[in-house]
Amino acid sequence: KSCQKPVDKYIEYDPVIILINAVLCKAQAYRHILFNTKINIHGKLCIFCLLCEAYLRWLQLQDSSQNTDPDDLIRYAKEWDFYRMFGIASLEQTSFFIGIFITLWWMTPEMLKRKSDFILLLKALLLSTYGKLLLIPAVIWEHDYTPLCLAFIKVFVLISNSQAIRVTLNLNRILPWFAIFFGLLLENGVVCLFQKMGWDV
């Protein structure tokens, strides 16, 4: 019943085909991954994506200092800026998820009655942030179009989040985007708060 078909066709498919269809944001592939597989990498994937995001921010912060002295770079690597960036990225993602949960709970309280519903939606959102792994090649193959690549990665992650919400709660296309919009508002509010505190975000 989760796949809304007589049979889940992805049962017979190779994992590579399933992954390609998930990258293409096909709803049935998401249903298969969320309901018919036993993937238990949500926490590890979340930490790894946050580390990638923190590294990218730390690298941009390091580039803004424009110091070429090797001793200074070694000293800079020992500082706590990377951990601060990891903490900021974690708080931003948490506020984004909280914004989504508040909106969905307010708009469709019948969908999120049980604790298991919240846990399933959280797992779906964590899995759908896999697009942040594309930050690694964006950093490695640094070129003039890096800001454009980062914008595309952000849009891809938001589309994946929308599909995850839609598949998990069996909603139409509009409500997940409304929840994501509110989550982005809350995330940007956290960023503005950090900037008012004088932190480099």
UniProtKB/TrEMBL annotation:
Aminoacyl-tRNA synthetase as UniProt keyword: no
Tree of life domain: Eukaryota
Keywords assigned: Endoplasmic reticulum, Lipid metabolism, Lipid transport, Membrane, Transmembrane, Transmembrane helix, Transport
GO CC entries: cortical endoplasmic reticulum; endoplasmic reticulum membrane; Golgi apparatus
One of the Pfam families matching this protein, by short name: Arv1
InterPro entries referenced in this protein's UniProt entry, alphabetically: Arv1 (IPR007290)
Chief localization: endoplasmic reticulum
Compartment annotation: Endoplasmic reticulum membrane
Membrane-crossing segments per the record: 85-106, 118-141, 148-168, 174-194
A biological-process GO annotation: regulation of plasma membrane sterol distribution
UniProt membrane topology term: Multi-pass membrane protein
Family affiliation: Belongs to the ARV1 family.
Protein task: Mediator of sterol homeostasis involved in sterol uptake, trafficking and distribution into membranes.
Protein name, UniProt field: Protein ARV
